[in-house]
Amino acid sequence: MGQPVKLSDALVLDARIAGEAQERSIAGQVEFWAKLGQAVEPLISSRQAIELRRKGEIRPLSELLGSVEKTEGRERTKAYLEGRPYPHYRQFPGQPRVYIRTAADGEETVGRFVNRAFVPIEGARESGSHSSPARARTEPGAAAESSSKENARDAEYPIERSA
User: Fold this and answer.
1) Radius of gyration over every alpha carbon of the chain, rounded to an integer in angstroms
2) pTM greater than the 0.85 cutoff
3) Residue 20 · residue 68 · CB < 8 Å
């Protein structure tokens, strides 16, 4: 049988936000967190638990979500993403759906995502003052016509090309 328990307003709000994402009630989310804590507790020492509690500033989820669109949230997101393994991606300046992939060795490749896979744009580069990807010119004698598939893709994702 359920037992009434007093919880802080911040915890209830966090449980509401997290519970909605997982389609759980507030009580269901708090119970999930409690079971998770029960499962983890035997795996860590009391010293580790104290260090985890002391190590990070514990802030309510609602406060963190509220800061996402602010400078603080953007900086936090940028720091997190830069700490992730390579490759890293950033948007190509002024071109929607065109990205720059940075490899661990610092090599940069311009491309776009097609069916969740990064596809480099041949001959594309990011130059200092000119901020648009450029397609390499077709060599004389080479086939000047692209396949219909490439034409369809280019029509869907137009980018500036060098003349």
Assistant:
1) 25
2) no
3) no
d(CA 147, CA 75): 42
How far apart CA 126 and CA 106 sit, in angstroms, is 13
Nearest partner of 7 among 42, 39, 34, 38, judged by Cα = 34
Contacts of 76 (CB under 8 A, 6+ apart): 67
Domain ranges of the chain: 9-82, 88-135+148-156
Q: For the range 151-157, what are the long-range contacts, defined as Cβ-Cβ under 8 Å and sequence gap of 24 or more?
A: 153/114, 157/97, 157/98, 157/112
- 24-37, pLDDT tens digit by residue? 999 999 999 899 88
Residues in contact with 7: Cβ distance below 8 Å, sequence separation at least 6, in sequence order: 15, 30
Return the number of other C-beta atoms located less than 10 Å from residue 98's C-beta.
20
